[in-house]
Design goal:
alpha+beta, Arc Repressor Mutant, subunit A, 2 domains, 3-stranded antiparallel β-sheet
Length: about 150
């Protein structure tokens, strides 16, 4: 995921390890330099793409002097992607899901109607149905919490 900018279902099938290897090699060289007493950059690396932000942090597995290192990868998922994933757990029709996501991201009624090609009067109706169906308080924060939980 850290080596692919595109988000699609086939992106993870065809991983290009050449994009990830330099990251791991850089971490290894930094750890070796620290062990040998040379100045080196920190033993971590960050990269961001459509999948989110990835932090690779290297450390010695058995202590300095050993040849084995461990790489811990932390993946921070973008809020919009996490909300999009949360939509599938909710009992909403596809168009209601689209409105819920856009509304929770802070888009105005006009922006949502323009983006989805629906009437300006339809959007508030969808929003009201969403609040009722999810049984939540009628505000964006409650909707965001419902999508992110």
């Amino acid at each position: 995921m850290a080596s692919h900018d595109r988000i699609d279902r086939n992106a993870l099938i065809h991983l290009d390890l050449h994009n990830t290897t330099p990251i791991l090699r850089r971490l290894h060289h930094r750890l070796v330099a620290v062990f040998e007493g040379h100045e080196a950059g920190p033993s971590f690396f960050e990269c961001s793409n459509g999948w989110g932000r990835f932090v690779f942090r290297g450390s010695w597995l058995a202590g300095p002097g050993q040849s084995a290192i461990g790489i811990r990868v932390r993946h921070y998922i973008p809020r919009a992607l996490k909300a999009w994933t949360g939509l599938h757990r909710l009992d909403l029709a596809p168009r209601q899901q689209q409105v819920a996501l856009l509304f929770s991201e802070g888009l105005t009624v006009s922006e949502i109607s323009e983006r989805l090609g629906i009437s300006r009067h339809t959007v508030p109706e969808y929003v009201q149905v969403i609040y009722e169906r999810l049984n939540i308080a009628p505000n964006r924060e409650a909707l965001q919490n419902a999508l992110l939980s």
